[in-house]
From TrEMBL:
Pfam families documented for this protein: AA_kinase
Protein name per its UniProtKB record: Acetylglutamate kinase
Pathway(s): Amino-acid biosynthesis; L-arginine biosynthesis; N(2)-acetyl-L-ornithine from L-glutamate: step 2/4
Name of encoding gene: argB
Entry's Gene Ontology cellular component terms: chloroplast
InterPro entries, per the entry: AceGlu_kinase-like_sf (IPR036393), AcgluKinase_fam (IPR004662), ArgB (IPR037528), Asp/Glu/Uridylate_kinase (IPR001048), Glu/AcGlu_kinase (IPR001057), NAGK-C (IPR041727)
Source organism of this protein record: Sheathia arcuata
Keyword entries, A-Z: Amino-acid biosynthesis, Arginine biosynthesis, ATP-binding, Chloroplast, Kinase, Nucleotide-binding, Plastid, Transferase
Annotated site location: Transition state stabilizer: 29, 242
Domain spans labelled Aspartate/glutamate/uridylate kinase: 24-261
Family designation: Belongs to the acetylglutamate kinase family. ArgB subfamily.
Reaction catalyzed: N-acetyl-L-glutamate + ATP = N-acetyl-L-glutamyl 5-phosphate + ADP
Principal localisation: plastid
UniProt-annotated location(s): Plastid, Chloroplast
């Protein structure tokens, strides 16, 4: 039997939270690691559609690591990483840009649009909204670092009910493209937009003390704990740019940052709309 009074109670409790959420910007990083399965992608898209239709101001930044590796392997380029960042020379960049901007971005936008969301795909190159440079200022190293972000374009989109979907590629003032880790792009956009929340969807339950052991999930960490875990080599590889961008976003005013498991059905909704504890929350103290 339907509990009508229960439904009304849920709505009454939910509306004040919704009112607060609608006032703020939320950056969601959709990790490539959480995109390996089409059902998974559809589930996450469904949650994003619901949140957008509830009136939340969202910005999606996506990765694409596994798909980039797949295409690199096809042309006999061995994917390599240093400190969680993809080693990027000219040939690698060509593949990275094709996969991120040409394939993944278009597919995500398409999936959102067929669900009646007005999604706009863009990279940092569009209207030059992200200016980047080589991470070590060397002309052959095409791993990018962000020099500046102009929030005008993204503001224009979200204030007109469009949903920006950002591929993590940007260029310098001379048009040289750079591959920027998507976590870093998400974190920097959160800072530039004064976002209230940064949510990172990936393929682990959150930050684990022991790799592959979900019972060692750390559900809440402060800056000191994160730095200790980096020092102890507990946080490594692809988790490094995540925690670093969370720390930066927090230091610049983002109220909460979360690393959650994109493979768990409705993890986004659970994180944003309920007080269910999911993933790892990084807080300032
Ligand atoms: N302490 C840790 N706890 C959990 N995961 C960790 C930890 N240290 C390193 N990792 C690794 O970080 C990975 C997630 O980062 P990864 O870059 O692979 O995914 P992603 O960022 O979601 O995808 P993409 O880079 O394609 O956007 C995990 O799969 C895990 O192997
Ligand atoms: Mg990654």
């Amino acid at each position: 039997m339907i509990d009508h009074f229960g439904t009304i109670k849920v709505l009454k409790n939910f509306l004040p939270l919704l009112g607060t959420l609608k006032k703020n910007t939320i950056v969601i990083k959709f990790g490539g690691a959480a995109m390996t399965d089409i059902t998974l992608i559809h589930d996450i898209i469904e949650d994003i559609v619901l949140l957008h239709n509830l009136g939340l101001k969202l910005i999606i930044v996506h990765g694409g690591g596994p798909m980039i590796n797949f295409w690199l392997n096809k042309i006999n380029i061995k994917p390599m990483f240093e400190n969680g960042l993809r080693v990027t020379d000219e040939k690698t960049l060509e593949v990275v840009e094709m996969v991120l901007c040409g394939k993944i971005n278009g597919e995500l936008v398409n999936l959102l649009n067929i669900n009646n969301v007005q999604a706009i795909g863009l990279s940092g190159k569009d209207a030059g909204f992200i200016i980047a440079n080589s991470i070590d200022n060397s002309p052959s190293n095409l791993i990018g670092k962000i020099i500046s972000i102009d929030p005008t374009l993204i503001n224009l989109l979200i204030n007109n009910n469009y949903l920006p979907v950002v591929a993590p590629i940007a260029s310098n003032l001379r048009g040289q493209s750079y591959n920027i880790n998507a976590d870093i792009v998400a974190g920097e956009i959160a800072c530039a937009m004064n976002a209230h929340q940064l949510i990172i969807l990936t393929d682990t339950p959150g930050i684990l003390l022991k790799a592959s052991d979900p019972t060692t999930l750390l559900s809440s960490l402060d800056i000191i704990k994160v730095k200790t875990l980096i020092h102890q080599n507990v946080i490594t590889g692809g988790m490094l740019p995540k925690v670093n961008c969370c720390l930066k976003a927090i230091s610049q005013g983002t109220s909460s940052t979360h690393i959650i498991d994109g493979r768990v059905p409705h993890s986004l909704l659970l994180s944003l709309l309920t007080d269910y504890t999911i993933g790892s929350t990084i807080r300032s103290c």
